[in-house]
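Hi R.,

Here's the chain you asked about this morning:
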Amino acid sequence: MKTKYILCALGLTLLSTSCSDFLDEDPKGKLTPSTFFSSQEELDMSTYALYRKVCDVQTNTNPTIPSWQGDDLTTNPGSNKQDYAQVDAFYPTNANKGVEAAWSTSYAAIKASNYIVLNADRTPTTEEEINIAIGQAKFWRAVNYFWLVRRWGQVPLVLDTDVNYERPVATVEEVYEQIEKDLLDCVATLPTDYSSEPRKIGTTNIYITKQAAQSTLAAVYMAMAGWPLKKTEYYAKAAEQAKAVIDGVNAGTYEYILEPEYKYVYAPSHNNTNETVVGISYSASFLWDEDSQMTSSNLFESLGGWGDGWGEIKFWKEFPAGPRKDATYNPKILENNGRNGETNLLDWWDEKIPEQHPMFSIFTVGEGGTDYDYTKPASYDMCNGHRHRLIRYSEVLLWYAEAQARAEGTPNTMAYECINQVRERAGLEPLQQGLSGDAFANAAFAEHGWEVAGYWVGLVTRRDDQMRMELLEQTFNERKANEPIEVAPGVMRKNRVEVPANVTWQGEKSIYLPYPSTDTQLNPNLKR
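And here is the predicted structure, written out as tokens:
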């Protein structure tokens, strides 16, 4: 087995919780202190098992369906995409497959983390090795609670390995306090570099480092500064963490880069790019449990793909032209994906394209797994080894820029330098000095939205940005009205998903997902 895939694959026989909800146990697959943590090898095995569960959180699109609330994404209202369409229109049911998958996979990863946190220090090895294992566990526990608290608000805070069918929900603030504590522990104990596989592949750290934890903490502080906590003083903390990472890069201490050309940001040829700050590594084994099953997720169904995520028309139109837009969406669509030798390139609004929406190309690859060229047929392999880029260095630059401006009221020189690095690569003119704090911060906010557009596996998606800035109701209203938009001279189009007439905005109940029915039947505390 190739070492680049070891993190997902070695966990297959070590930790298996195939249940549909996090309260159930499968004792046959449970790591216990009596059978593990008796050697360095077993400590490593427990970490591999954790990464196997981390892979499950994103191996297919189901757990990422909450991202479809964002104004960048929409989908087919028919076909087999009804669960995506429900979230897109802000009325998911408690039986929605995305609701169930996002909940259960995150809690499975949390359980795997808890086993390590509670037992790793029993291992007869060095303090450094114990810190590395516990650091990986605390990091992924924090990340999964970060997903849970933004999708559901109040959730059970599970920090043990007990089965408790009446566990109460914690407040949003309590969940964030635990997330912050875990990440601060990671910053204090994790190394800045690793030396061997599978912890490091080439020049890329696969295991979580101090600087990866700092970057994640910046994202968490940004969320805490906005809705629902509105602790605006946390913008200063976010800027502090992001600046520490940027300073480390500028000093040559940290490995992160901006890819010189945006077309390589998600390209297979740059899969282990050091623009990725936090990533999840996958194989292309077609085992359905360790590969990234998203190769066909952007390619329209009419072209032979899955077409899970379509570009929303208004967002596409407002997206600034340039190399970033050309690498995010297909500039043109190859008729029939060239299945019969076609070479004709069409606009997405051409009547020959049934979907009538912009088509993302982020996850698409060329035949044989090569970098995608929209003028040539796309691959139908379904699965690939795409390394999911949960956080990229461009995001850290933008988080610093926005957070510093919001914290201090006026953007400083470093904030301008950060945002202009990102804009220059995108083919945009630099922002000129003299903007107000709000205008500059909003520009950085918009820039982040374009950087992560359509990338539903990101740690901070467009949906998450909009939630923080209380913009989801605006998106709901725009979807409800669904006004036609001029996409070319004299050509009007509107989004295919329609918000049902009886669906109204209900504040938190519209933003947060319903608790999954599988768990509400077991835990009476899971109520809205």
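One quick note: Confidence is low (pLDDT under 50) at residues 1-6, 8-29.

Cheers,
M.
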